[in-house]
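Hi R.,

As promised on Friday, here is the backbone we talked about, encoded as structure tokens. Could you run it through your design pipeline when you get a chance and send me back a sequence?
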């Protein structure tokens, strides 16, 4: 992904750790998407650190850390889950269900 494809800059005023964690989560989503589209991994068990780093090289990303590799596997679990969580309110359709993912860095969940 080139810099031109990156979204608009994040709003100013966030703590530096929040920017870093959000960038890590976005990188993990892009890598998981690449691996699924190219057929490199079909389950989180297939996604070894070496395979994830190879996918990063193919997409032009810097080598991911162990934390990012584990986050890629967590994203694969989320993307490959057979069903969505139960709807948040009575009568809601599965498309209205919200999936929330918490990224933990340095043993502190992000806001």
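Update: got your reply. Pasting your designed sequence below so it's all in one thread:
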């Amino acid at each position: 992904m080139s810099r031109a494809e990156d979204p608009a800059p994040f709003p100013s005023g966030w703590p530096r750790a929040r920017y870093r964690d959000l960038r890590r989560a976005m990188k993990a989503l892009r890598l998981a998407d690449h691996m699924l589209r190219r057929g490199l991994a079909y389950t989180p068990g297939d996604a070894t650190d070496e395979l994830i780093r190879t996918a990063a090289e193919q997409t032009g990303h810097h080598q991911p850390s162990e934390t990012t590799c584990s986050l890629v596997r967590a994203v694969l679990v989320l993307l490959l889950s057979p069903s969505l969580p139960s709807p948040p309110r009575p009568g809601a359709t599965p498309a209205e269900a919200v999936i929330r993912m918490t990224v933990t860095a340095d043993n502190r969940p992000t806001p």
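One thing I noticed while checking it: The beta strands are 104-105, 108-109.

Thanks again,
M.
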